[in-house]
Specification:
Layout (H helix, E strand, L loop, with lengths): L10 E4 L9 H8 L5 H9 L3 E3 L2 E2 L12 E4 L18 E4 L3 E6 L16 H9 L13 E2 L8 E7 L2 H12 L4 E9 L6 E5 L2 E3 L7 E3 L13 E10 L12 E8 L6 H8 L24 H12 L5 E9 L6 E5 L4 H11 L2
Parallel strand pairs: 8-15
Antiparallel strand pairs: 1-4, 2-3, 2-4, 5-6, 6-8, 7-8, 9-14, 9-15, 10-13, 11-12, 13-14, 15-16
Length: 345
């Protein structure tokens, strides 16, 4: 077995009877979980494996009983993003994964315009030597993301094996994800499913848009959001649809596409409060200045400079132990203050 802590020690593997005829990269990934199959494939092609002292670079080779392979993992390279000491709200951490409650305003991964101050920069500093490397690089494995101005729970892999398993769970929709959204108005019906595929907007490549399934665009992805109106605000709080000024909507994701909740709710006439891209930014039509509750809400809305969206619940099977894990994070102060002001209308 490869040392799970350092992963820089050579190892030797002998093909048993049970694996005769199996692809080389598949066999190695099944008996040695420190690397995924795709990672073994890349390493074999790069010359990390030898047979009888000779480099062996064919990952599709069908192994034979008794063959002996020597494997020398490459040293873990330093991370490209730099470590930055940034406070993190860590909800769970072990050798394989870390769960954090991301604040609004923090970008998940470095990119143009946001090379520093990201969650990845913070995780590299926080995890330090416990990052055994994803794809041979000492970096956290990002398997899902939240928009910069969306707050809430994220799980991140610290090792290749955990990264591969979590990626598979997300691709097969075996993750529980519940978001709280404060939207303009309230949808009818109060409980429903929005099943509408998404792709990049042809008019603005920074935006996503609902597309016709028959268009069969190469970037088109199925997107499904289950929603439930939890509270309705203004114009008769007892009513949960139609005449409300705003509403708190619980959204359960079946899929997790870029901007999915924001686009889906906007498509049924209920854009997120504060959303500058798919909504109309601060303010709610129908609020009457001069009324104490309305004045308070107007002031809070004026200063609420993000989409009102919070990833409150995250549940999944631990990628290594299989234990069921479930986390819940209360919305941050700005979200709670907005909700309280709307409840008073």
């Amino acid at each position: 077995m490869i040392d799970r802590e350092t992963r820089d020690q050579a190892a030797q593997f002998t093909v048993p009877q049970d694996y005769a005829g199996t692809r080389l990269d598949k066999w190695l990934s099944e008996i040695e979980p420190a690397f995924s199959r795709s990672r073994f494939k890349a390493l074999i092609e790069q010359g990390a494996l030898s047979r009888n002292g000779t480099p062996f670079t064919d990952p599709s080779w069908k192994v034979r009983v008794g063959e002996v392979f020597d494997f020398t993992p490459p040293p873990v390279e330093p991370a490209a993003p730099q470590a930055e000491t940034i406070a993190l709200d860590v909800r769970y951490e072990d050798d394989d994964i870390i769960v954090v409650n991301k604040p609004a305003g923090m970008v998940v991964h470095p990119a143009a315009g946001n090379w520093t101050g990201t969650l990845v920069n913070a995780l590299i500093a926080h995890c330090g030597d416990t990052l055994s490397g994803i794809g041979g690089v000492a970096r956290p494995g990002i398997v899902h993301r939240l928009d910069k101005d969306t707050s809430g729970l994220l799980v991140i892999a610290k090792r290749d094996a955990a990264h591969a398993k979590l990626s598979e769970a997300f691709s097969t929709h075996d993750i529980e994800r519940i978001y709280d959204a404060i939207a303009v108005g309230a949808p009818r019906p109060a409980v429903g499913v929005i099943d509408a595929p998404l792709a990049r907007s042809e008019g603005d490549r920074k935006k996503m848009a609902i597309v016709d399934e028959e268009d069969d665009r190469p970037d088109q992805r199925r997107a499904v959001t289950h929603y439930r109106v939890a509270e309705a605000y203004g114009r008769g709080r007892a009513k949960l649809a139609g005449d409300a000024l705003a509403s708190l909507i619980e959204c359960r994701l079946e899929t997790g596409r870029t901007h999915q909740i924001r686009v889906h709710l906007a498509s049924i006439g209920c854009p997120l409060v504060g959303d500058p891209v798919y909504g109309r930014g601060p303010g709610l039509a129908g609020l009457k200045p001069g009324e104490p509750a309305a004045d308070t809400a107007i002031e809070i809305l004026r200063n609420f400079r993000r989409q009102a969206l919070h990833a409150r619940v995250l549940g999944f099977d631990h990628p290594i132990s299989g234990e069921r894990l479930r986390f819940e994070a209360a919305p941050p102060e700005d979200f709670a203050r907005l909700k309280q002001a709307l409840e008073a209308l």
